[in-house]
Amino acid sequence: MGGGVADLVTSGAQPLWRGRALALIGIVLVAFSLRSAVASLSPVIDHVAEDFPVSSVVVGLIGAAPPVCFAVFGLLTPLFERRFGLERVAVVAIALIAAGLLLRSLAVDSTSLLAATAVVFAGVGSGNVLLPPLVKKYFPDRLGLMMTVYSTTMAVSTFVPPLVAVPIADTAGWRVSLGLWGVFAAIALVPWVTMLLAHRTAGPAARVPVSGSAADSTSTDAETDADAETDADADSRAASLATGPIGTAPANPRVFGRLWRLPLAWSIALVFGASSTVAYVSFSWLPTIMIDVGGVSPSNAGLLLSLFGLMGLPCSLIVPILIVRFQATRPVFFFAITSGLIGLAGFLFFPTVGLPLWVVLFGLAPALFPVALVLLSIRARTPESAVALSGFVQSIGYAVAAVFPLLIGLLHDVTDSWVIPLWVLVGVLIAVIPAGWVAGRRRTIEEDWERRYGRW
């Protein structure tokens, strides 16, 4: 049955632009805004501090805002979507991102800066949940391709803002540098509002009936044998599931409850948490660390943050292939951990020698993120279990990640040095090693339960 539906999808594939050009443009623009909102502030925080004080606590809270909002709105957004519809909630989410980014550029003190940032990440948290089902609705016949476009756009938008933020701030001021990304987000509203007004939102989904069939039944068959699936299929399903409970398929409470007793589920959650910790600490503090420890200028610190973000692009493309096709979960995991530790050692012991090399190596540590995405798909036997696993991993992982941006800032304030904060990151990467070993076991959460407690 799964193969028949898959054949239907393949035979019914439509050109990307036919009848859904606005959806394609809208998805790309929203994907760009999701990450640019995260990566655009820390490179110019020194410029902001020239106008009003920005304490380490505020910077830490700003760094903690993304994972907190992702967790909260990852749970709330599906409720809003079922009540008001996918596109309407997407328009509200994009409007929140645009409004928050523009308000952030108008901040007059650290409180208003923090409040505007909370608005931004309320929208980003919802957008993270909404984009995969939007892709599934409008491009059910091109899921693998569109998920590649979606994830690649997000990777690009991670390294572009730090690349240009400081030069723009130097030339036109930090308010223009921050507000520019609000303009991009506002432009992303246009295609979705146009589609709502034109009443065309249901067309593409109706032409190729995939929801609950093709993607789900294909994944049900494929997840029982990871060797049988292509990297594009696994990556698209993993990216969809990793954003949390989406669409109208809430996690089964019985399945979710069992995950608390499974080492495999906890191990994936901790891998996800370690990856998110490295990412959000870096987006919050890496430019400042580079200035203080490496002795670089603010513009070069922004370039180094951009280099850090750039390393996520090849990882997002290569890691799913290595794990799905070659079963290389543990080698990829240990490569990421080792690279991150070498990069941190460079920051600690040789910060003024080969600094770009240390940033490149440290930037490979977030390869743990695509590792976790793929594991969400191949470590569950059914779509229902995968959704439950995604919700569990997201809850634990983002809770862990939310602690560290603030903790790193407080440790820096107390010690007046970056040595202890950097050693804390070393500790995070070392502490997650046992979890990575467990996550590398080639079994599903159902098999893990059956080995311990009997029938699933």
From TrEMBL:
InterPro entries from the entry? MFS, MFS_Cyanate_Porter, MFS_dom, MFS_trans_sf
Region Disordered: start-end pairs: 207-234
User: What's the name of its gene?
Assistant: yeaN
Top-level taxon? Bacteria
Keywords assigned by UniProt, alphabetized? Membrane, Transmembrane, Transmembrane helix
**Membrane topology (UniProt):** Multi-pass membrane protein
| Gene Ontology annotations for the cellular component aspect, listed alphabetically | plasma membrane
The positions making up the signal sequence are: none
Lineage, please? Bacteria, Bacillati, Actinomycetota, Actinomycetes, Micrococcales
The biased composition feature labelled Acidic residues covers 222-233
Give every Major facilitator superfamily (MFS) profile domain span.
21-443
The species this protein was found in: Microbacterium foliorum
Location of this chain's protein in the cell? Cell membrane
Using the UniProt record, give the first listed, main subcellular location. Answer: membrane
Q: Which SUPFAM superfamilies match?
A: MFS general substrate transporter
Give a GO molecular function annotation for the protein: transmembrane transporter activity
**Entry coiled-coil feature ranges:** none
The molecule here is called: Inner membrane transport protein YeaN
Transmembrane region(s): 21-45, 57-77, 89-107, 113-131, 143-166, 178-198, 264-283, 303-324, 331-350, 356-376, 388-412, 418-439
